[in-house]
Amino acid sequence: MRLKLLLSPALVALTALCAAANAADVAVQDGYRLHPGDVLQVAVWKEADLQGEVLIRPDGGLSFPLAGDLSAAGQTVAELTHALETRIRRYVPDAVVTVSVKLVTGNRVYVIGKVNHPGEFPLNGPIDVMQALSLAGGTTPFADTNGVRILRRDASQQKSLEFHYGDVERGRRLDQNIILQSGDTVVVP
Questions:
Q1: What pTM was estimated for this model as a whole?
Q2: Domain 108-188 maps to which CATH number in 3.10.560.10, 3.90.420.10, 3.10.20.10, 1.10.760.10?
Q3: What is the Cα–Cα distance from 127 to 57, expressed in whole angstroms?
Q4: Residue 75 pLDDT > 90, yes or no?
Q5: Residue 112 bridge partners (DSSP)
Q6: Domain coordinates of the chain in residue numbers?
Q7: SS3 74
Q8: Per the count of CB atoms within 10 A, which of 14, 47, 91, 116 is most buried?
C-alpha cells in the first residue's frame, strides 16, 4: 500500500507530461498560422551569427540576415522554415534552419461593450462566442444579449455576424456560436 502512494505523484506527473506532449502534437498537426506580433526564435545550425528572436511586423513580414524580407503572417512554422532555408542556402549551402514560436501575441480576439471585463484575449486554441463572453466576465445586466455582433475582417472587407445569446443559451440555433478567428471583435450593445 505504501509503494502505491509513493508512485501516485510520479504517475500524475507522467500523465501530465503525456497530455502536454499530445497538446503540442495537435498544435503542430493543425499547423498554427503565424500572425503579426508573434515572436519567433530562428537559428541556423553551426552559424552563431544567424540566430535570434524575430518579430513578425504589423504588415506580416519579417527580416532575417541573408534571407532579407519575407512574408510570414498566414504561414505555418514549417512553411516559413522552408522559405528561410531556401533563401539562406544561396549563401550557406548546407544550412539547417530551425524556427520556433517563442511568444504568441498576434493571435487575439476582442470583446467590447456591455461586458464585465472588456478587452483583448489570447486565442490559444479554438474559442467560440460563448467562451469569449465568458472570458470577458459575462454580460452586464443592461446588455442587449440578442443584439450581439461579431465583426470579422477578411482581406479588405469587414462583415458583421449576428449572435442571439438567448437562442444559444436555450440550445437553439447553435450554428451562431461560431469559432472565432484571430482579429474578431465581439460587440455587446
A1: 0.62
A2: 3.10.560.10
A3: 25
A4: yes
A5: 187
A6: 39-103, 108-188
A7: coil
A8: 47
| 117-156 pLDDT tens trace | 999 998 877 899 999 999 999 999 999 999 999 999 877 8
Residue written as grid cell 503572417: 73
Return d(Cα 73, Cα 53) in angstroms, integer.
16
Burial class (CB in 10 A: 0-12, 13-18, 19+), 76: middle
CATH second-level architecture of 39-103? Answer: 2-Layer Sandwich (3.30)
Phi, psi of 109 (to 5 degrees): -120, 160
Alpha carbon separation from 66 to 35, 50, 95, 156 (Å, rounded): 22, 9, 11, 32
